[in-house]
User: Which sequence fits this backbone?
């Protein structure tokens, strides 16, 4: 993973506790909102709608919704590349008996194209640092994804535990994926938290 400066990726695998509070202006969404990505260039907010199999597109200027971006599987995570061109959406299709429970969709927002890739493990979290590739956390491994080619390079195995679909009504997406991810202000550090019975893991990049 190429960052403009030394980068550290910390994957802390532990029991995840999510505490949330409301602030700002509430905008109702029909479905289950799970993850968000801010597009400052287009003044938009992308919101994964797990139950509706799509990404909602919120115009920040007037808080109206543009046409949604449908995906083939329930979207669990979303991240926008630093240049604002590529939107990566992770899939979480962890239904009993399913052999392809994950994958990702890459939207080329400038070119108007998309690429869909299926995987055997559900995607728990996705994030870009200040480099061109995205860190993708699945239920089985960590990957570096090049959005220009849609090719993901395995880093190492990360056994983790996730929920299964379907779930009871009013179950929040974070309680299903059991994971979250964040990026430092300078883009050099990515921290992912996921539920696992294994020891903590620290991965360092230069």
Assistant:
């Amino acid at each position: 993973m190429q960052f403009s400066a030394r980068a550290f990726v910390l994957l802390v695998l532990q029991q995840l506790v999510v505490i949330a509070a409301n602030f700002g202006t509430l905008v109702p969404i029909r479905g289950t909102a799970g993850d968000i990505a801010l597009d400052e260039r287009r003044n938009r907010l992308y919101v994964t709608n797990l139950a509706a199999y799509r990404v909602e597109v919120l115009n920040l200027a007037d808080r109206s919704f543009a046409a949604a971006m449908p995906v083939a599987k329930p979207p669990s995570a979303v991240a926008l590349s630093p240049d604002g061109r590529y939107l990566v959406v992770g899939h979480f299709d962890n239904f009993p008996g399913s052999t392809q429970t994950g994958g990702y969709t890459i939207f080329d927002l400038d070119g108007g194209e998309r690429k869909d890739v299926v995987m055997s493990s559900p995607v728990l979290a996705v994030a870009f640092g200040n480099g061109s590739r995205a860190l993708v956390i699945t239920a089985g491994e960590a990957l570096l994804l090049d959005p220009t080619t849609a090719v993901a390079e395995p880093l190492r195995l990360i056994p983790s535990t996730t929920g299964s679909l379907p779930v009871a009504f009013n179950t929040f997406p974070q309680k299903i994926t059991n994971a979250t991810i964040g990026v430092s202000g300078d883009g050099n550090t990515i921290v992912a938290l996921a539920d696992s019975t294994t020891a903590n893991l620290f991965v360092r990049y230069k």
